[in-house]
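Structure tokens please, single chain.
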Amino acid sequence: MARHIAILPDAVADQIAAGEVVERPASIVKELVENALDSGARHVRVELEQGGKTLVLVSDDGSGMGREDAVLALDRHATSKVKSVADLVGVSTFGFRGEALPAIASVSRFTLATSEGDGTATELSVTGGRLDRVAEGARQRGTTVAVRAVFFNTPARRKFLRSVSSESRAAHEVVATLALAHPHVGFELHMDGACRLVVPPEQTLEERLSSVWGAGLSATLVPVSYAVGAFRVTGFAQRPGDAQPTGRRTQLLVNGRPFKDPFLVRAAEAGYRSAIHPGDRPSLLLNLHVAPEDVDVNVHPAKLEVRFRDRIGAERAVEEAVRDSLGALAAAVHVGDWRPAGMGPRTPDVTVGQAVDGHNLFTPAASVPEEDPTHPAAGFSVPLLQVFDTYIVYQAPDGVVIVDQHSAHERVLYELVMAQLTGADSPAQRLLLPLTLELTDEELDAVEGHGEELRRVGFEAEPFGGRTVLVHAVPSPHPRFDAESCFRETVADLARGRFGGWANRLERFAATYACRAAVKAGERLDPRELRELLLRLFATDLPPHDVHGRATIVQLPREELERRFGRR
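Here you go.
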């Protein structure tokens, strides 16, 4: 009987393994730099020629290896970490000498020089997986690996390499990513003799972000620090007002290990809901801290993906962490404390869904005495000034705060409407004579398609033949509310897709209605209304942002005032 199954020669097996680990020169850079990091290196230098096609050289000042370990590291399945199957779960290192070296050496002209710091070094050379030379040399503590002519013996793979510029960009991204993950380590990247990246060791993450992503982008980021369940999330998220449709940067880490996960990025973006325009994409660097046994980092040959034991918990932690970071004024403008003196982080006695007088945002001034200490607005004791009938100005501990009244009310109404759409309806005011409105075909479709949402916020509308609708009841969110104008503008926006891009139809509707129902710029508010508006703004989840991602709150720091008046 003819035999059809055979054991592959070691050389062929090595090249197959290389195909899993070594996709391009950037893959080699990643493996070698991670080895250097696992060796305890405090400085890593990377040199490339022709995008790594002709040379990838990685030199470090880590622990180095003795002669026996250096030779053994070139054998398949040699490792310094894994002793049993149990060690595959919870592994906290990247991959010390041995796991990638045989695969890389099998498809290149490979040299290695390493020393444990005793004055002597071991030098090895390998060609296409065949050990050519083992010699003694001299070197300071650390290791240098040079990989030349990658895929020289597998031309079918070499022809799939991309242009020099493309391979260079991929390698640069690898080094930049690892530099972000390890701000305590110094990195250098040189390409064809030109220095492309230099970062010193012992930087803070904020300093490293500025060095790698640039000072301009780094200045738009706010810190993230949040813990829930088994997860703790740290890092930085971009202020909503600085998010753009293109050009964003995202980096995910788990226990300091870079990985990719579009679903976690989507969870992070969910934390921005109602704070940015749906088409904008914020930049993020998030590090998930979790017990090593609760995450599997060996699900991808190149360790680009991970698997969490509690997947839902990971997504929840990321979303809540981002949302929590946006609740501070720093997420709108990078300044200090913006709440009036004596006011805590939230206003516990006032909630967005519970207005002072029924569901109206503003209580008529005569209904509650100004001096009544039980009135929630009485707790807001700092003097308030309305300027240009548009902005509310007051003094906070760290400077002068300016609030856009329309944006603030828009945020308040958005969260109120979201509560109404998922809970109790809003009280409606029935009209003695219904509004008779002529609409376009698209607007009629919008009324029909959003009939339930319109009813829940207080509008009762019915067709009246042709393009006419009758509106029998309307909401009354504030005394200056123009029901007919709000209905027309809301329906027109829904019909034209002005708020298109919202993943959730209820959020889209709430944002549209809130924008049209809020008090406008140019409307004068009395002192009590100013206080009530600010109290309800401070009780929302995201006070610094309206539904468009614009700032509701801006602060002029005291230091800036003193500088402008020559007091500093």
